[in-house]
Specification:
nine-stranded mixed sheet, globular, 14 helices
């Protein structure tokens, strides 16, 4: 089969690896519009379950990913002048540039054709048996048929900026700072021996009140360094794309959904198919899980239409709870005032529960006590595990139905 993946991010590259491993006779090409090595972004987070899946599917690239990853097993929250710690599952971080370097090298070793500086436009759609749109949230291939796919983009309320820092965090770190114009907060995590990611977010009125909406790039970074001096320990912040401060830009997160994921021989993958709010740290993981499902469907179902239908069915079902969790996570931060004055250990505990569809409807102090009780009583734990996902799927299904 001749396969062309448009987009050289983690999803496009890893799908090419899986397809060549399944059948070396496949003719697989990855087209990337940007020059090789020019990727934006800082660190990618993932959890042990993903790493185990990568080891099962391609041990060689998985070993390289694990070797170049850093780890943490606790979270730290700074609220005003108070600090609280909580143990957690083992998290992993790897630089996006390093991840792409590993996957590109592995793809080449298997005979995948990689072509950089190769933009695809509406007038230059490549010929292939299978055309994979892995070209991100603004996918050119998807946009050509937006009506068919039922594409919907919704901007979030809070502005945020994605930065790097020379401060190497030893835990997944949250910092909440109160200003005269409201709260501003960051999440930081390491992804290499000398760098961490630092995402800063605040309400729109805080953003404008602090002057971040009109500040020059260097001025804005200097202001953020001052606000988060306690957690940065004197280290600097770095603009998103390069070490040039002018690269920093504020955004509002765009949640992308599609009611269909394929059209004839064109199929959507990763951010071209869906996005989930960055606060759940699952974007790359979900994109890679798309590649697992698509590769499996193509291997097990020879007829292409049936394989693509199976892929769409499996992934849309799998994403329902996660998309709901992401929506509630974003709303938790948008309603920070509801939680910020709790004792820090309780606020941090509810921060960890921000994906819950129950939390917005239960007074925070009561939810905390119920959650603590559920942790000690098996019956309540079972009820919570059953009720939470059920409510999440129902609520998210209603949201999607209202959009159609």
């Amino acid at each position: 089969m001749k396969v062309v993946c448009v987009g050289g991010g983690p999803a496009g590259l890893y799908l090419s690896v899986l397809l060549k491993r399944q059948d070396p006779s496949h003719d697989v090409t990855v087209l990337e519009r940007d020059p090789e090595g020019s990727t934006y972004g800082w660190g990618v987070t993932y959890w042990r379950s993903l790493l185990d899946e990568l080891h099962a599917r391609d041990p060689e690239s998985a070993r390289a990913v694990e070797e170049h990853s850093v780890r943490w097993n606790q979270g730290v929250a700074h609220v005003r002048d108070l600090t609280t710690h909580q143990p957690g599952d083992e998290g992993h971080g790897i630089g996006r540039h390093k991840l792409l370097e590993i996957l590109a090298a592995r793809a080449r070793s298997l005979g995948v054709h990689l072509e950089y500086d190769h933009p695809v436009t509406a007038d230059t759609v490549p010929d292939a048996d299978l055309l994979v749109a892995a070209d991100g949230v603004h996918s050119t291939l998807r946009t050509r048929h937006a009506g068919h796919f039922g594409t919907r983009l919704e901007a979030g309320r809070n502005p945020y900026v994605w930065l790097g820092t020379t401060k190497v965090f030893d835990s997944f770190t949250f910092a909440f700072v109160e200003t005269a114009h409201g709260w501003i907060w960051c999440y930081g995590y390491p992804f290499g021996p000398d760098r961490s990611t630092c995402v800063v977010e605040c309400a729109p009125e805080t953003w404008t009140g602090l002057g971040l909406d009109t500040a020059g790039e260097a001025e804005g970074l200097a202001l953020l360094e001052d606000l988060f001096a306690r957690v940065l320990d004197g280290h600097r912040l770095i603009g998103r794309a390069t070490e040039d401060a002018a690269a920093a830009s504020w955004l509002r997160f765009r949640t992308l959904t599609n009611t269909r994921w394929y059209r004839d021989n064109l199929v959507l993958l990763g951010d071209a198919a869906h996005t989930t709010h960055y606060s759940i740290g699952a974007g790359t993981t979900l994109a890679l899980e798309d590649t697992f499902a698509l590769a499996d469907a193509l291997r097990d179902t020879p007829a292409l239409p049936k394989a693509l239908a199976r892929y769409e069915r499996e992934r849309t079902a799998a994403l329902l709870s996660l998309q709901s969790a992401a929506r509630y996570s974003a709303q938790w931060y948008e309603n920070l005032a509801r939680y910020i004055d709790l004792p820090p250990e309780r606020m941090f505990a509810l921060l960890g529960q921000r994906h819950s569809p129950l939390l917005p409807y239960v007074p925070p102090q009561l939810y905390y006590r119920l959650d603590r009780a559920a942790g000690q009583l098996e019956g309540l734990r079972r009820l919570k595990r059953w009720l939470g996902p059920k409510l999440a799927r129902t609520a998210h299904g209603r949201v999607l139905s209202g959009r159609r």
